[in-house]
Specification:
Blueprint (H helix, E strand, L loop, with lengths): L4 E3 L17 E4 L4 E4 L8 E3 L4 H5 L31 E2 L7 E7 L34 E10 L4 E7 L10 E10 L7 E10 L2 E8 L3 E8 H15 L3 E3 L8 E5 L9 E8 L17 E15 L6 E10 L3 E10 L14 E13 L13 E13 L9 H11 L6 H15 L1 E14 L7 H7 L2 E14 L2 E18 L5 E2 L19 E3 L3 E19 L7 E20 L3 E14 L11 H10 L2 E15 L15 E12 L8 E15 L1 H8 L49 H18 L3 E14 L8 H5 L18 H4 L9 E4 L6 E6 L5 E3 L11 E21 L2 E21 L5 E15 L16 H13 L7 H13 L5 H5 L7 E7 L1 H5 L5 E20 L5 E22 L6 E17 L4 E25 L2 E23 L11 E19 L3 E14 L9 E12 L3
Antiparallel strand pairs: 1-4, 2-3, 5-8, 6-7, 7-16, 8-15, 9-12, 9-16, 10-11, 10-15, 11-14, 13-14, 17-18, 18-19, 19-20, 20-21, 21-22, 22-23, 23-26, 24-25, 25-27, 26-27, 27-28, 28-29, 29-30, 30-31, 31-32, 32-36, 33-34, 34-35, 36-37, 37-38, 37-39, 38-40, 39-40, 40-41, 41-42, 42-43, 43-44, 44-45, ...
């Protein structure tokens, strides 16, 4: 970090000034390559107020420099990497023991004289097969300096992220080497387990020279078995170890989950009782201990197997029964795993489906499907869960612990209890009726529209299970549902103007105006309910049965409506409501009768959530004045609002929240080209009479036979051609108007204009109920009840017209005849400047947001096959968050208000390359304008405002348009597509079709907030422009080698600039990507094989892409002179993949592919290292039927 860093000085000579060997440099050899080792904790100088360790925890850059040379030198660096030891000292800053390494290259001579353990072979470098290069074999070194008698020191390695499973091996081995000076006074020990409180331990005497430690896992588990049997054995001699070796155990370790391994040395000198191998009196130990080649051996390769049986019986066309059984033994494993999971699994299931309506007469349309399933799963572990103790052995010892006083039945029960508690058993049953309908063959209206329109569904499921942690767990649940839907006859309407408007100009278009007397078009409703109960008993001591229950219901209703159609204004829409109710408080006795449950589903419960959605569609019809409807499509407008109410029962009124969100949309389409064609239509030329035709030039009649080709034919040159036809100046004017006005400005086929607005309001602590009574129980603009607003949010709130839940309108009798009011508690209804009553003594929040979008889109043809689409967009949004607090009466008080928003519009900014430089929309222009602004009195002491103004104006192409169009008017974006390029370029002999694409998209966005003084403060500005693609070519070639060949090429760029007003910095993100793909396929070709003519397919594909990304930061104060900025990040990603796919008679498919991917860091700056990946593979699929 800045001003906090560490310096290291490493001499590059092999010997120091005092003549001693430089331990920081090793190697050399014949090629003079050295390895320089920098001890990170042993620094030369530390700058800043942090320790070395704290600084090393947050390293962001590394600098390397050389000094002390009297003449030029060349230094090559092959690799810089971090290395370290995974074995950690258990005590930091311990002077008794240090951890290090020794290796054959550096420590084979004095004073260490390191040798390789017997049987260990140095690894050979396989990357250079032409040379014999061996790895630098090394060992862990424990440096002992004054270990007192009876004390121990150890190093540890932790596997907290991924524990080691040693259970599938039979032994753990390693080599140890003691110091000659230890004599017989040292022991080496090995601990491994879950942590320092749960581990196995093996120890043996530590002697000079290499010796092997051999830990037999079967001998280890006998220690645990002896302890669990009540023998209180903490250690036993190791049967296969040398004299003086022991096994011991602490806590409850397991070979299946090893997260800690420790290796240490114990000073046993002077140990009591005195033995011949111990020294008297006690003494301190000094020396080195080497450890090498820790490994697990003798893998468990016991065979395993698994099988599965499936069968199905079809009972005519009214049912089927299926059965399956699966078995897996504890040693079975898939090819993607090395070992089995040591569990025997048995699963079986029966599934039945019946269609009982097939037993009814054919003219009945009844639907009655039934389904039943039963499933059982049992898991029999070979070992006790989370241990390495065999279940059968533990069961036998459990029976033995009962002692001789217990009866054989009691001993057998104790053994069976151990086996049962280790198992996992699950039993499930399910019964369902998915869709029951009567379908009675009667035409009575009450049968057709009521009984036959009902449908029912039911599901019942139960389960029971036990496992090592649960004695028993049972559950059951049922779900019931019914639906009803009917479509009403919508022919009851009036046409009051059919004869009144007939034959009247303009009004005749509205003579078919329909007014529906019953606007409802149809109903859809449903009722759903569910009830469940779960109980479980844990195996922990003194545990009690835990029970959970649910009982709920939901109701839905929706209908479509239409008031008018075919008139000046067509009005229609949809309405829907969804209510979820909690019935759990009614479930008190534990069992309910059918009638009680049915009554609760329909009429009982308390509201948990309430949802309501409404849609209003307006289709105005434009009066056909001057045939204007020919050029305007049908106008459309719509309004949609969703209202939601939630109740968290535990928090009272504070747990009641209400919210709504609405959307307003309007749009129209104008056919400009059709209208302009009428303006510039050519006048019809009247037929001219023969007398008006100009006379022909008179000449002699030529003889029929002409033999003299050089003979001059006399012509009357005195005859004059009549050119007296007049030229209409209006036609000439119209011709020039077409060229200058129509073609460039009025040849756009369609102009589509759309407007959209969305609003959202969310409020906490809303008092009262769902608001259903306020919406349907009051007449329009009827004065609400003067109570505590117990009905919940008002109708206007549910319609999305006000943002306060208690706001409504009151008739005033004067213009504008209505005023907003809100219920304010005991003071009654007051003006809306006050907030309505809320939950008492609470801190609540009101959240309101709005978003607006205006878009204009048009298109036009350019030439044959080419079209241009242009669009403009502008949008703005804001959000207001109000924090309130209420008193003991629930009257709100304003605490704070936070308002933020943004403005976004389509923009035009072009990169300063080639001809685009004339638009002056670059970072250099931003720097120039910033320098001008910062010197202007208008921006005195306002560097942020100066940077924002310079950023927007400097990056905009054609900024003078602001003077004519305004600051917030969007700029044009475009896309171009040209199909049939092959016709122009002359490639038709080779290319079947070719198209070209080009698209430009740019936007400007400004985020702001409202300060405490009411001023608008800009936070961030963002400008982006994309050429997506800059050029794109799609090509399909004509037949090549009796197959089809196609290709696609694209080059696209994306650039984004973000200006942060907090630090006046501009962040630049640039992406440039090129992609190429080729595809060739040939299908259906034949060749004989074994006397058969097989049809074959061949496919070849090639893809290539290269994407360059860079991220830089700029300071506006230096942009005029430096546009390079400071590199932050960047990389280049390259991928290439050729693939060949061959299909032989639709039965054998083979694919051969090669994939190359490379990520190269940017030279300027990158946070990731470079990587290169090469993949190749063959896929073969054979279908056997």
């Amino acid at each position: 970090m800045t001003d906090t860093y560490i310096e290291y000085e490493i001499p590059l000579s092999e010997f120091l000034e005092d003549g001693t060997k430089n331990l920081s440099i090793v190697g050399g050899g014949t090629n003079k390559w050295y390895q320089v080792r920098v001890p990170l904790l042993d620094s030369t100088r530390v700058f800043g107020n942090q320790s070395v360790l704290s600084t090393l925890q947050n390293v962001q850059y590394i600098r390397l420099w050389l000094s002390g040379y009297s003449k030029p030198v060349r230094l090559r660096i092959a690799e810089i990497s971090f290395v370290g030891n995974q074995w950690l000292e258990t005590s930091r800053d311990d002077s008794v023991m240090k951890v290090s390494v020794v290796n054959i290259e550096d420590n084979s001579g004095a004073p260490d004289h390191y040798t390789i353990p017997p049987g260990v072979i140095r690894e050979r470098d396989r990357t250079q097969p032409d040379q014999e290069i061996f790895g630098n074999e090394q060992s862990l070194a424990l440096l002992i300096n004054g270990l007192r008698a009876g004390e121990v020191r150890q190093v540890a390695k932790y596997f907290s992220q991924r524990p080691v499973d040693m259970f599938n091996y039979r032994a753990l081995k390693l080599f140890v080497h003691g110091d000659r000076s230890f004599g017989d006074d040292a022991e080496v020990f090995l601990r491994f387990g879950a942590d320092t409180l749960n581990y196995y331990e093996y120890r043996q005497p530590l002697n000079f020279d290499w010796e092997e430690m051999n830990v037999i896992f079967s001998e280890l588990t006998s220690v645990k078995a002896a302890r669990d049997s009540g023998a209180n054995a903490s250690q036993i001699p190791a049967p296969s170890g040398p004299p003086g070796s022991f096994y011991s155990i602490r806590g409850n370790p397991a070979l299946t989950k090893v997260q800690y391994i420790g290796i240490g040395v114990r000073n046993v000198s002077g140990r009591y009782p005195f033995k011949t191998r111990y020294t008297t009196p006690p003494r301190d130990l000094y020396g080195k201990v080497w450890v090498n080649e820790m490994r697990v051996t003798e893998v468990d390769n016991s065979p395993g197997g698994a099988y599965r049986i499936d069968t199905q019986i079809k009972l005519s066309d009214f049912g089927n029964v299926s059965f399956n059984y699966a078995y897996t033994d504890p040693n079975y494993h898939g090819v993607d795993r090395a070992f089995g999971d040591r569990v025997t699994r048995k699963n079986w299931a029966v599934n039945t489906n019946f269609v009982l309506d097939h037993f009814l007469p054919q003219d009945w349309t009844t639907s009655l499907p039934l389904a039943y399933s039963h499933q059982e799963n049992i898991a029999l572990p070979k070992y006790l869960p989370n241990t390495d103790v065999v279940v059968d052995e533990a069961a036998r010892r459990a029976g033995e612990r009962k002692g001789s006083t217990a009866t054989p039945e009691e001993q057998q029960a104790a053994s069976e209890r151990i086996i049962t508690e280790s198992q996992t058993l699950s039993v499930r049953d399910n019964f369902s009726v998915s869709n029951f309908k009567f379908g009675l063959p009667f035409q009575a209206w009450y049968v057709r529209d009521i009984i036959n329109s009902l449908s029912f569904r039911f599901n019942y499921a139960s389960s029971s299970q036990r496992d090592p942690s649960i004695v028993s767990a049972t559950s059951w649940q049922w779900n019931f549902g019914m639906s009803y839907g009917v479509t009403l006859n919508h022919s009851l309407f009036l046409q009051p103007f059919s004869s009144l408007f007939d034959g009247i100009y303009i009004l005749e278009d509205y003579k078919d105006w329909k007014i529906y007397l019953f606007p409802i078009m149809g109903f859809n409703s449903s009722l759903d309910g569910g009830r469940s109960r779960n109980s479980s008993l844990s195996r922990t001591q003194n545990s009690a049965v835990r029970e959970t229950r649910t009982f709920n219901a939901s109701k839905q209703l929706s209908f479509g409506w239409k008031i008018t159609e075919g008139g000046l204004l067509g009005i229609g829409g949809d309405y829907g409501i969804n209510i979820k109710r909690d019935l759990l408080f009614l479930d008190t006795t534990g069992s309910q009768g059918f009638s009680q449950i049915l009554q609760a589903l329909f009429f009982g419960g308390r509201d948990g959530s309430y949802g309501q959605n409404m849609t209003f569609n307006f289709k105005p019809r434009i009066p056909n004045i001057l045939n204007i409807t020919k050029y305007f499509d049908q106008l459309s407008a719509g309004y949609r609002v969703n209202y939601a109410w939630q109740n968290a029962f535990q928090r009272g009124d504070l747990g009641k929240n209400a919210a709504w969100e609405n959307s307003i949309s309007m749009g129209m389409n104008f056919r400009l080209k059709s209208l302009a064609d009428q303006w510039f239509k050519d006048d019809e030329v009247p037929a001219k009479s023969k007398q008006q035709q100009p006379p022909r030039i008179q000449q002699r009649e030529l003889p029929k036979d002409i033999t003299d080709s050089t003979k001059t034919i006399p012509i009357d040159t005195t005859a004059v051609e009549d050119t007296s036809e007049s030229i209409n100046p209006l036609e000439k004017l119209k011709f020039f108007a077409k060229i200058l006005i129509k073609y460039p400005l009025l040849d756009y086929e369609n102009i589509n204009i759309s407007f959209g607005q969305s609003n959202r309001s969310a409020n906490q602590g809303v008092v009262g109920s769902t608001g259903f009574r306020n919406f349907w129980g009051k007449l329009p603009f009827q004065m609400p009840d003067a109570d505590t607003n117990g009905g919940g949010p008002s109708r206007l709130y549910q319609l999305g017209l006000v943002s306060d839940p208690s706001s409504t309108l009151r008739w005033t009798g004067r213009f504008p005849f209505f005023e907003p009011i809100a219920y304010g508690g005991p003071s009654g209804w007051a003006d809306t400047n006050k907030y309505g009553i809320r939950a008492k003594n609470a801190a609540i929040t009101n959240d309101f947001s709005q978003k607006n979008d205006i878009a204009l889109k048009t298109n036009r043809p350019l030439w044959e096959g080419a079209s241009l689409e242009i669009n403009w967009k502008v949008g703005w949004q804001y959000r207001r968050t109000t924090n309130l607090s209420t008193d003991e009466l629930g009257i709100p008080k304003l605490n704070s208000t936070k308002t933020s928003g943004s403005v976004e519009r389509s923009f035009m900014s072009l990169p300063p390359v080639l001809l685009f430089k004339v638009f002056k929309s670059s970072l250099e222009d931003v720097g120039k304008k910033y320098d001008q602004n910062i010197k202007s009195p208008e921006y005195a002491n306002k560097p942020g405002a100066a940077a924002a103004d310079a950023f927007e104006k400097g990056m905009e192409a054609l900024p003078f348009l602001n003077k004519f169009l305004g600051e917030f008017v969007p700029r044009a974006n475009w896309s171009l597509r040209w199909s049939g390029v092959e016709k122009i370029t002359g490639l038709g002999d080779y290319v079947q079709s070719m198209s070209l694409d080009h698209s430009y998209r740019s936007s400007f966005r400004r985020d702001f907030h409202i300060a405490d003084d009411g001023s608008e403060q800009t936070d961030v500005e963002r400008i982006s422009y994309d050429f997506a693609p800059l050029i794109g070519i799609q090509t399909t070639f004509k037949e090549v080698w009796k197959g089809s060949l196609g290709g696609n090429f694209q080059y696209k760029t994306s650039t984004a600039y973000d200006l942060s007003l907090t630090n006046q910095k501009i962040t630049e993100d640039i992406t440039a990507e090129m992609s190429l793909s080729l595809n060739y396929s040939r299908r259906g070709f034949e060749f004989p094989l074994f006397g058969l003519n097989l049809k074959n397919d061949l496919e070849f594909s090639f893809t290539y892409s290269r994407a360059k990304k860079s991220r830089r930061q700029h300071d506006p104060a230096f942009l005029q002179s430096n546009q390079e900025g400071t590199p932050l990040d960047g990389n280049i990603r390259t991928t290439m993949e050729p693939r060949i796919r061959y299909t032989l008679s639709a039965r054998v498919t083979a694919s051969l592919f090669y994939r190359y991917s490379r990520t190269a860091p940017d030279e300027g700056g990158s946070t990731i290292p470079g990587t290169t990946t090469n993949e190749a593979g063959v896929d073969i699929h054979i279908a056997i039927q």
